[in-house]
Amino acid sequence: MRKQYIVALVFMMGLAQFTAPWLQAKAQTAPASAPSTSAPLASTAYAISAGKTPGGISLVHLQIPEEKDQAFSFYWTDREIQHMPEKAGLLVLAPGLISIGGAGALDSGALEEELKDLGGFFSLSRGRSTALGVLFAPREQIEAVARLLHSALSEPRLPEITLTRRKRFLLNGLKASREKAENLAREALNLIVVGDHPIARTINYLPQSTITDVTVADVEAWRKSVLRRGLTIVAAGPLGREEVALLVDRTFGSLPEGASTRAAIPLTLQSLARTIVIERNVEQSVILSGAGVQWRSGGAEGISRNLAMNALGGSNRSQLFIAIREKLGAAYGASSSISSLLGRNSLFAMEASVANDRVGAALAAMRNEYQLFREKGVTAESIDPVKRRMISGFPDSMRKAGSAASFIRTGMINDLGPDAANQYRDWVREQTPERINRLIRERLPEALTTIIVTPSAQGLGADCVIRSIDELPRCQVP
Questions:
Q1: CB under 8 Å to 427, separation ≥6 — which residues?
Q2: Strands (DSSP E) found in 127-224
Q3: What global pTM score does this model have?
């Protein structure tokens, strides 16, 4: 498989966080399972079926006969990190070490070469409540690549030296990240919104012991407790359901059963309507205004959310871009987004990178545009072209194994069920300015927290001025 295609696929599947290199493992054989039975869901566009494999694993299946490649996107419920924030580094270190450390008789280098020869890949990652995985290969090689994944999951090597190197890489990356104004501002805003919830440690990974204290035994404990519990597989590609079910049971059926699922720790979003300036000698300043919100990312509501953010700051024709970049000429870029924090709790943020001498003007313009957005919202002219592109592009994405499996998995994680693909176009079509604007008024708060990273706070009306993020707690005192 061409590397360019694989990179594009990973991006399309929303798996950019999978930073592990190519993996491979020595082929192993396993007894075949009995065929499974499952009826397709009620649908006309995509014959998606859901049910259990003979081995009892939840399987959602979509056959794409014309595809040459087979994809599996899978997930486990994984709330471990909420209960052990002192080892927050496990969020990154555990899946990475299992993926790249080697398996069985094969060391990391041998794994990499074998997977390259097969033209397939697999990878693991973790979120704050879900562990994710992906397996992808040409149809002819999918069984061989699946055996490699089985080996990596059931007998990973987990070398100490590899873990040490990954810790060093993570620490150096975090240090470099904090040198960038936009990353510093976003870290501060996230920490304010999540307050003292355990996931705060997964935002800043401080103290460094959250990384340095992670051991190979911790990684192994996570593997045994999570990597079978509540497993759901989504398969898309040319293989029929019965063949896929056999392959799923051979690949995942012998994994440890795992402990009971831990309860979620509720997150109460914190509000702080203040302007905080972090004085740094930066070449260009960053303004970040935002707040915690509860606005679903999936289904019709999620599409409303995407259309709203696109209109506010999602393109070079959006409100923020026109007001701050084109009209004011103060910004190098301006955007808005809503990103996940935990469950349905998310972070809304507007961001602009501006010339140091135009911060005040850009801040006033950003606040004015936000007020207008809450009052007037989107228009048909701003959302209709985007809706047409969403509808016209969707069939192509569902004809590709990787993006189809990823889309269905996202729907499952968001409690939309396996048949979300058959509702997608209706969800888009039913979007109106009135519907979206009601959600804007309901979900986006009037008051925001503003973080500004700039050389001087003079003239910005700051409620709190600090020089490093370590001083942030004093800005949160009433």
A1: 299, 300, 303
A2: 130-138
A3: 0.87
Going by pLDDT thresholds of 50, 70 and 90, the confidence category of residue 42 is: very low
| Residue 314 structure tokens | 């999602």
CA distances from 224 to 49, 229, 254, 262, 423 (A): 29, 9, 12, 14, 37
Strands (E), 343-383: 345-354
**pLDDT tens digits, residue range 257-292?**
777 788 999 999 999 999 999 999 999 999 999 999
Q: pLDDT, tens digit, for every residue of 306-346?
A: 999 999 999 888 999 999 988 888 778 899 999 999 999 99
Please provide residue 151's backbone torsions phi and psi, each rounded to the nearest 5 degrees. -65, -40
- State the average pLDDT over residues 124-147: 97
Q: Which of 192, 250, 158, 148 is nearest to 463 (CA)?
A: 192
> Under 8 Å CB-to-CB from 308, ≥6 apart: which residues?
377, 378, 436, 439, 440
> In which residue are the tokens 């008051």 written?
447
Cα distance between residue 90 and residue 209, in whole Å: 11
DSSP string, 385-426: HHHHHHHHHHHHHHTSHHHHHHHHHHHHHTT--TTGGGTHHH
